[in-house]
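Researcher: Go.
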Amino acid sequence: MVVIRLSLRAQPKNRPYYQILVADQRFSPKKRYIERVGGFNPLSKDANALSLDLERIEYWIAQGAHLTPRLKQLIKCYRKQHQAA
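Model: Structure:
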């Protein structure tokens, strides 16, 4: 099964940065993935904290990929911010 999930990227201590990846569920999120579709910096307060390629995410969802619950929330917030702007 193909999933779209967050993957912790190696960063300095106490500076998390997450990649948003399309990957096969059987593989480790740190090793093999199909495509990188965005990034998320939870410490950033500005609008650039979340970057997404919504076209590719919608493509993968149409192909049968599943989203993690946290990523569903992030996409919902992203759409709300960019719809208002």
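Model: The domain at 2-84 is CATH 3.30.1320.10 (S16 Ribosomal Protein; Chain: A;).
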